Amino acid sequence: MSAQLTSRINGIYARSIYLPLSDFGRELRTLSRRVRKVERGQRATLPVADWREAIDVRPIRIVAPEKNSGDVNLGELAVLASAAAATRAGDEIVEIGTFDGRTTLNLAVNAAPQYRVFTLDLPPEAAPKFDLAPGERAYVEKPRSGRRFLDPPPEWRAAAGRISQLMGDTATFDWSPHVARAGLVFVDGSHAHDYVIADSDTAFRLVANKGMVIWHDYGVWEGVTRALDEIEASRQLGLRHVRGTSLVVWCNQ
Ligand SMILES: C[S@@+](CC[C@H](N)C(=O)[O-])C[C@H]1O[C@@H](n2cnc3c(N)ncnc32)[C@H](O)[C@@H]1O
Question: Which strand (E) or helix (H) includes residue 117?
Answer without folding.
Answer: strand 116-121
